[in-house]
């Protein structure tokens, strides 16, 4: 695991150097680094959520849709109450609603997978369509306008030293989740479910409850990422984020979390998410068409995963 | 006959139109080793799944120490330790983590209770040493790096550690060499001497005849024979298992 992190850091060092040279130094200027860190605050949350699900033997391709829907619902609540409640309270309530919206998306996913017994890929594929559709129905397909500037100035662009506040919030949330996995039985039970669901069930682990719990937590992280999205731009981005799940899955896998469950690597997921962000930002800054971004992320996923023997299918016969 | 540790009364199980078990009445006393024997399809696995709480009965009742056992939660609460045929281990987790899976030890850290990983490693090592298992000295080793035999003895060690009233063993010596078979059989005897009821499913008839206090032979989902093994030969058991077929 440590070797994986070192390898990733070397690759990232090479990429940073290449983009720095190709952009005549612009890649590492203050504004771009800050932009990358804010983007990181969202992708990190999604990557850690995805890593949690993968460690339990599941996957979620509806994260981007949960993010959009959470931003839309949270934003609408802020619009509705900004003139009624004091601004800090309105923003706090908006954040809470965004997180709860994400959590509700996860609750539906978790019930469909854990109780109804539908495959996680199929469930979240369905949810991808539903959540995206609901967001478009609610907004009429038009991004929200009229959100208070305080959303941006009191959270989205606030910095502590070189670090944007959303980035620090994401790191703090990830630290709490790491502690849950490392210090509590719940984390052990989630990993056991990914390692062998039937074994976990037979030793008395409440697999249905934990399945729902891990989906709710993961999607609540997407909800928080949705609120960060609102705070960054003071509007929604309902046609964006379609590739967020791809980046998150890639980050978790590249970081050493097993697709088949039983193992999670938080530091790896973080470093993997940073790799995706370096690629995304680097391609933009050297003026390569955004269309190439998904190609780069997809290629990064395939190359990194194919280098890891544990992720390859074994052929027999 | 007293109810003892385990009692099954009128237990039946159906899978669609097929009757897998019918009118099973069985008692296992404290310290008693009961061997369940039968040909393939006789109903051994179904009966074991019912006794360990993995499957529910369609008829009748299962009791452990007089309390009804209906599911896995009941089984864990009533102190039923199980060695499953597939061992039910989590391959990515360590020996110590598997020993305590679902019953993790915790310690106080300020206002919180956190996993006591050091305590679990120490106790897992002690439990394995106490059973005389010398092949599992590294409890930090992930299970997927253990041999089949090592996994089997881990499954047995875990079941014995968890069992407070009853231990169920489904083919506990299937993947073991002679030395490890000896260790497992000794562990079963030790569990019996400590007052645990033992239900054992095994195809190793000679060992069963030496170890068991009672032999229960299932045929076509019903109990065909329930007696002490004294005077029984392997051939007698085989004949009782398959009849004239």
Overview of this protein structure:
The complex is a heterodimer of chains A (317) and B (245). Chain A has 317 residues and is mainly alpha-helical. Helices cover 74% and strands 1% of the residues of chain A. In chain A, strands 1-2 form a two-stranded antiparallel ribbon. In chain A, α3 packs parallel to α5 and α3 crosses α10. By secondary structure, chain B is an alpha/beta fold. Chain B has a domain of 166 residues: 3-Layer(aba) Sandwich (Rossmann fold), CATH 3.40.50.300. Chain B is 33% helix and 28% strand. Chain B has a six-stranded mixed sheet, sandwiched between helices. The model of chain B has no long low-confidence stretch (mean pLDDT 89). The chains are: A mainly alpha (317), B alpha/beta (245). The interface between A and B is medium-sized, with 23 and 26 residues.
Produce a short descriptive summary.
The complex is a heterodimer of chains A (317) and B (245). Chain A is 74% helix and 1% strand. With 317 residues, chain A is mostly helical.
For the termini of chain B, the CA-CA separation is 33 Å
DSSP helical segment count of chain A = 13
Based on the structure, what is the oligomeric state of the protein chains? heterodimer
CATH topology of the domain at 4-90 and 164-242 in chain B: Rossmann fold
What is the strand tally of chain B? 12
Overall morphology of chain A? globular
N-C termini distance of chain A: 31 Å
Please report which band the strand proportion of chain B falls in: under 5%, 5-15%, 15-25%, 25-35%, 35-45% or over 45%. Answer: 25-35%
Mean pLDDT of chain A: 91
> Sheet bearing the most strands of chain A, described?
2 strands, antiparallel
Tell me the overall shape of chain B: globular
Give the C-alpha Rg of chain A.
19 Å
Greatest chain-chain contact: A-B, 23 and 26 residues
Overall radius of gyration of chain B: 18 Å
Helix-strand pattern of chain B, N to C? EEEHEEHEHEEHHEHEHEEH
| Number of H/I helices of chain B | 8
